[in-house]
Amino acid sequence: MVDTEPRPSSDGPSGAAAAVASSCSIAATLDVVGDRWTVLILRDVFRGVRRFAQLQADLGIARNLLADRLSRLVDHGVLERVPYQTRPLRCEYRLTAKGADLSTALIALMGWGDRWYAHDGVPTILVHETCGTPLEQVVRCPHCDETVNPGRIRSRPGPGRSPA
Amino acid sequence: MVDTEPRPSSDGPSGAAAAVASSCSIAATLDVVGDRWTVLILRDVFRGVRRFAQLQADLGIARNLLADRLSRLVDHGVLERVPYQTRPLRCEYRLTAKGADLSTALIALMGWGDRWYAHDGVPTILVHETCGTPLEQVVRCPHCDETVNPGRIRSRPGPGRSPA
Q: How far apart are the CA of A72 and the nearest CA of chain B, in angstroms?
């Protein structure tokens, strides 16, 4: 992944850094899920661990921290509270469409850990439901209909780029 | 992405949670890059911002925090210090192969921010060097030779799964 855009200059106006940061989708994502506990909570919800007590037991996280992270995820529309019992009312946490769409990022984080830290073999294998074959995450060019090596990826400014 | 493995029980032995956590490649990745500044530093290095003063100016990060994060990334083998001037000696930070392999994760984090927060259009478009077509990040089944929808992804324990 090589960027062919002009580089921010080290002695440029301080506003330039802010403009780049504010128009960066990586920073936007980190504003929502840029916290270690948050990512581990989402991993658990993807795995089907959806209730407060289960999450607390699985993660070994303090109640107040867990409550804070879950509230933030609900506020950001990543999780929603869904009642599973009415007397007394008890809710579990489910992924919204926006939350489910984080699977790509979780798979990517898992893939890197697998490639560089799973010295005794990978802990979890993602497979195709239909045939059971281990899956691969790739970047594709829909025009050339081929997998694109990271060295062949370039970037250009999009319509949402703030003027520096 | 649906997990078909047995769920951790909320009242199981406390060792089970630790075992799952220790055998989780997402947690392994977060141990290295599970910090907001660290991800933003890596984003900048991918963009070609490689020198301490440039990184500091671009990110608006305190010197001690930047030095700490860079040291950690060097210690983890994600970045390496490469001299660009000898008198006096000055070094810049370059991605190692392990660091460059984080492009998949950064692209995934960017993609989610693009899809859910780029209301005025995406700030950056990743394109194929060869033809300039915007790229897509997908999960593929090499056996079926097709793109796999997240709903068709299953997981199973791999050889590195610690016994719970």
A: 16
For chain A, the maximum distance between any two Cα atoms, rounded to a whole number of angstroms, is 62
Option in B3, B25, B127 nearest A46 (CB): B3
- Scanning every residue of chain B, which has its alpha carbon at the shortest distance from the alpha carbon of A14? B57
ipTM: 0.86
How far apart are the C-alpha atoms of A163 and B130, rounded to whole Å?
27
pTM of the model: 0.86
Label the pairing between strands B153-157 and B2-3.
Answer: parallel
- Predicted confidence pLDDT, tens digits, chain B (164 residues): 554 444 433 333 333 333 344 469 999 999 999 999 999 999 999 999 999 999 999 999 999 999 999 999 999 999 999 999 999 999 999 999 999 999 999 999 999 999 999 999 999 999 999 999 999 999 999 999 999 999 999 999 999 887 65
The CATH fold of domain A16-152: Arc Repressor Mutant, subunit A (1.10.10)
